[in-house]
Here is the input.
Amino acid sequence: MSRAKLEALGLNLPLLPTTSVGSFGKPDDLVAARGRHARNEITQEELQRLEERATEFWVRQQEEIGIDVLVDGEMYRGDMVAYFAQLMGGLTLGGLVRSYGNRYYHKPIIVGEVKWPGPMTVAWWKRTQAMTRRPVKGMLTGPYTIMDWSFNDHYPTRAHAAMALAREIRKEVEALIEAGCKLIQVDEPALSVRAEELPVAIEAMHVVTDGLPAYFFTHVCYGAFEFIYPAMLELPVDNWDLEMSNSGLDLVELFREHPFTKDLSFGIVDVHTHAMEDPDLVKERVARALSVLPAPQVWLDPDCGLKTRSVDETIGKLRLVVDAARAARRSLGGGFATSEGGSAPLPNLPPTDGAGKAGARKRPTNR
Here is the structure.
């Protein structure tokens, strides 16, 4: 169904399309410039020129590597929630709180009625799409995560805050579609923090996506999915982008018990290690994906955003993804699996490549 939707949108992608989650590392001169801009030492125009140069660098790298669906790299953002809170009415930035490791973000505070200020990401999507003939994803943070990662000093309940955010984020989605964007990722890394609130997140995503002509992704990372699966599949998106490799592909066993019914961007390289995986290990991870999902449902990418990795590490991780996808396509063409839905037996599949059974997983973090 989702591949038919892609074709209806005019997107002719190969089997096992490759992409990435969204963020890449910023070059040193841009990091320094963002600090100078915060101190009013350079203008917004000077900062934007550096952001555009860094964006084009990552577009060219993705093209050269062979990624099928590109991202802008988020050179114009610091944090995935604070970026939107700075722009939207009704929110203000609070003090620094720890996100993970030695990374911090300014936690937003909802102080009034949430308002869409007009396009927040459209200009960057248009700039990036103009740099390449390959499709570029629109990149947004979802209403449930913005609500969960903010203090709510205005709405009577968390659910009211999530719905208000959803109505305004839908306006950004509509603006992206009007600009020509056909692939839109709405990240919800907070989705599994409170299993009892899953219905709130699902209702909010319905507000964001229902009836709109685009192919929707959601990225969710490092959560306790065993507590919300398979109910989480009710989230109204076409493609789930999930961290898989960092936790030893433990979700695969959940998929055996309850089949995964959406498209899946299957993370086949771990972004939280400097080490480059052995190519054969990455290929085994692809085989594991194809042991539980029909090939037309599978996309391949890194586990999470690559902003914590160096340029060389990012390029190396993306090359591993593309090389593994190409090898799998050759195997599928040779009768490894059918493209109509059912997978043929895959040889020498390891039982796991890490943690094994589903269990405690890392809490969601800023990607």
